[in-house]
């Protein structure tokens, strides 16, 4: 059994300890949190899953009944029925040629009609489920700065596509002034709008890179940009705050979420380019052992956002396993804090996870079979 997230095949029940708090804002919804964990396997039928690289980039369809991910060598789009827990299909995609997605695709999204937005290093466009390129989106907005106009790969770094409004969102680095900006691009009219996102500087502030004898080691804080509940959300692990572009109201704002019992941001500093291993190790330790916020996801069943956080404690030696503390946060639709707690008894941080029907599904490799640790939170 390799990379197993939980060493259990039957449900376990845990109860999180109560957080001491006053009712300054409201009752802590997560104060009496309990949860069960169950490990399930997906039936591959006569086929096999190629999981040498894990799930990699993944996506859910609109009703979250299907999981999509790519296998490499050969490049296949894999579709899994999450309700029936079985493999549905594998569809070959091309790396090169007119329908090529590139050898190093970055991410993809699933659209309302089964089409895919694939954002790669050389290709960006809408593909159908059979691997055919329907529409290239490698457009250059009119009047954009020359450095970006001549580098589409940089312009659409980690781009997100809005299927409903036909917009592309990206955060290209500005070579001129290093400002952090959100680009909102109309691929039809080639018009664009820019929103400053200065707080995203935390992405670079808490990154460190060490180069010794041609070997590179680095650490960073996670950052995400995604569409959730008709909102474009931008997050970074160094802070609880989020940027929100409301796609219905067409309003953009920075929401400084305030937790009561947990730190809301990293307030220390690190050396981004250390030259000594000891300094690198110390800064990495500070970042990893601080609370890192993951991305909020909308739970339709409870009508609230749920969000994980984690602290990572590295082993003394490189080969030693890391240990974790995991946290759960709940917000209303306006990101007012509804609840916050440490998840007692959960010793491993979820990996390659998603939310479905109010439950957290975390990928596990069980003897090279596709599995999930499904966590059912009760509160």
Question: What is the fold's blueprint, element by element?
Answer:
Blueprint: E1 12-15, E2 34-41, E3 58-60, E4 66-71, E5 76-81, E6 86-92, E7 105-110, E8 116-120, E9 124-127, E10 133-136, H1 146-149, H2 152-155, E11 160-162, E12 167-170, E13 181-185, E14 192-196, H3 202-205, E15 208-212, E16 215-219, E17 223-228, E18 231-236, E19 242-246, E20 251-255, H4 277-289, E21 292-293, E22 297-299, E23 304-313, E24 323-331, E25 337-342, E26 353-356, E27 359-366, E28 369-378
Antiparallel strand pairs: 1-2, 2-28, 3-4, 4-5, 5-6, 7-8, 8-9, 9-10, 11-12, 12-13, 13-14, 15-16, 17-18, 18-19, 19-20, 21-23, 22-23, 23-24, 24-25, 26-27, 27-28
Head-to-tail CA distance between termini: 32 Å
Low-confidence stretches: 1-15, 17-24
Beta content: 35-45%
How many DSSP-defined strands? 28
CATH class: Mainly Beta
Question: What is the number of independent domains?
Answer: 1
Organism: Cyclobacterium amurskyense
Pfam families: DUF4221 (PF13970)
Protein name: Lipoprotein
InterPro entries: DUF4221
Provide structural commentary.
With 379 residues, this protein is mainly β. It has a single domain, classed as Neuraminidase, CATH 2.120.10. The protein has helices spanning 146-149, 152-155, 202-205, 277-289, and strands at residues 12-15, 34-41, 58-60, 66-71, 76-81, 86-92, 105-110, 116-120, 124-127, 133-136, 160-162, 167-170, 181-185, 192-196, 208-212, 215-219, 223-228, 231-236, 242-246, 251-255, 292-293, 297-299, 304-313, 323-331, 337-342, 353-356, 359-366, 369-378. The strands form 7 sheets. The protein has a 5-stranded antiparallel sheet, with no helix packed on it. A hairpin with a 2-residue loop joins strand 17 and strand 18. It is globular. Mean pLDDT is 91; it is low at 1-15 and 17-24.
């Amino acid at each position: 059994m390799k990379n197993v997230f939980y060493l259990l095949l039957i449900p376990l029940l845990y109860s999180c300890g109560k957080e001491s708090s006053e009712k300054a804002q409201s009752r802590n919804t997560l104060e009496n949190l309990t949860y069960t964990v169950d490990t399930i396997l997906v039936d591959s039928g006569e086929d096999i899953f190629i999981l040498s690289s894990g799930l990699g980039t993944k996506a859910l369809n609109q009703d979250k009944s299907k999981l999509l991910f790519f296998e490499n060598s050969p490049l296949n789009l894999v579709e899994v029925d999450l309700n029936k827990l079985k493999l549905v299909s594998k569809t070959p995609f091309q790396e090169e040629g007119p329908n090529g997605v590139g050898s190093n695709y970055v991410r993809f999204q699933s659209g309302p009609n089964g089409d895919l937005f694939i954002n790669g290093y050389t290709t960006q466009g809408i593909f159908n489920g059979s691997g055919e390129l329907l529409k290239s989106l490698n457009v250059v907005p009119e009047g954009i700065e020359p450095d970006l106009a001549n580098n589409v790969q940089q312009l659409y770094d980690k781009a997100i596509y809005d299927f409903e409004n036909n917009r592309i969102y990206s955060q290209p680095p500005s070579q001129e002034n290093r400002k952090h900006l959100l680009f909102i691009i109309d691929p039809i009219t080639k018009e664009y709008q820019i929103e400053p996102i200065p707080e995203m500087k935390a992405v670079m502030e808490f990154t460190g890179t060490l180069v010794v004898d041609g070997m590179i080691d680095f650490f960073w804080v996670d950052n995400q940009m995604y569409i959730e509940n008709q909102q474009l959300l931008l997050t970074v692990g160094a802070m609880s705050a989020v940027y929100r572009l409301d796609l219905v109201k067409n309003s953009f704002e920075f929401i400084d979420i305030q937790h009561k019992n947990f730190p809301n941001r990293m307030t220390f500093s690190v050396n981004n380019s250390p030259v000594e291993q000891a300094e690198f190790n110390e800064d990495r330790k500070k970042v990893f052992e601080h609370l890192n916020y993951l991305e909020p996801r909308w739970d339709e069943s409870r009508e609230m956002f749920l969000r994980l956080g984690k602290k990572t404690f590295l082993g003394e030696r490189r080969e030693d396993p890391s240990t974790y503390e995991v946290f759960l946060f709940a917000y209303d639709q306006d990101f007012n804090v509804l609840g916050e707690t440490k998840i007692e008894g959960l010793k491993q941080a979820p990996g390659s996870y998603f939310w479905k029907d109010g439950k957290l599904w975390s990928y596990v490799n069980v003897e090279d079979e596709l599995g999930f640790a499904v966590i059912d939170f009760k509160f």
